[in-house]
Design brief:
The protein is an alpha/beta fold. The protein has one domain: 3-Layer(aba) Sandwich (UDP-N-acetylmuramoyl-L-alanine:D-glutamate ligase). About 50% of the residues lie in helices and about 15% in strands. Strands 3-4-5-6-7-8 form a six-stranded mixed beta sheet, sandwiched between helices. The chain has a two-stranded parallel sheet with strand order 1-2. A hairpin with a 5-residue loop joins strand 7 and strand 8. The two termini are about 15 Å apart.
């Protein structure tokens, strides 16, 4: 919402809804969904998610989902069935590991797909070691983007953004203090916000990565790199946008 989304709806396990309502920003809506015994999203919640997506511009999926098998089946079903632009991160990526045929089968769909792995998630996706990925970040990201017709945001020091056409951007904003829990989830939300406002996958990811890093740099000046947390980055997004407007 700090990046321009007009409406955000958060899909959560139904038993957690009342707790989340008490702590979430007032502007964010919640959608209670059927859950597993482990209180993760259940496969039977698909119909409700499908209904919500009819009116949505973009879907972000992955952060906070957990590693339940039924939840991962739900993730794969949603990803394969939706015709909306989509950002896949965290456990959304883990759910795709070993199931790249699904992603390949979707390569001709017009919907934009942005994948935002850190090196560990990229390793699980493509079966390469983290060491090899880190030594060949740009080339591996470019190949994956082309092979599966997706935009890749390979996070880390000097985040790489690549799209299927060969466009490439290496980011130079950000600092080590951003290696904190939730920072990557903030980036996911920013990419989704820009997709929802009509930017193509590469531009949405490039601007989000740049502004995310700039917001982190602004937060570090105020909080220090050591003391910065993810919500500090969110607080600085408007200032980062203002500086670039």
């Amino acid at each position: 919402m700090r990046s321009g989304s007009g409406l955000v709806t958060l899909g959560i396990p139904q038993s957690l809804n009342n707790s989340v309502i008490r702590i979430k920003p007032k502007e964010v809506m919640t959608l209670p969904l059927a859950e597993t015994k482990e209180q993760t999203l259940g496969l039977s919640s698909y119909k409700k998610i499908k209904g919500l997506l009819q009116d949505a511009d973009c879907l972000a999926i992955g952060p906070g989902l957990g590693k339940n098998d039924a939840t991962w089946k739900l993730v794969r079903r949603v990803i394969s069935a939706t015709d909306k632009d989509i950002v896949i991160d965290a456990d959304g990526l883990n759910a795709l590991a070993g199931h790249l045929k699904l992603l390949y089968a979707m390569r001709h769909k017009p919907a934009i797909k942005v994948l935002a792995p850190h090196p560990g998630e990229m390793s699980r996706l493509c079966g390469l070691s983290i060491e090899k990925i880190q030594k060949n970040r740009k080339d591996i990201a470019k190949k994956f983007a082309k092979d599966y017709n997706v935009c890749i945001v390979l996070k880390g020091f000097r985040t790489e953004v690549c799209d299927p056409s060969g466009r490439h951007y290496t980011n130079h904003t950000g600092n080590p203090g951003m290696a904190t829990a939730g920072s990557g989830d903030v980036l996911t939300g920013m990419i989704a916000a820009f997709l929802g406002q009509g930017l193509d996958g590469f531009e949405a990811a490039r601007y989000a990565v740049y502004l995310h890093g700039l917001a982190g740099d602004l937060a570090a000046k105020e909080k220090t790199q050591l003391g910065m947390i993810a919500s500090d980055i969110i607080d600085k997004i408007p200032e980062a946008i203002k500086r670039c407007s």
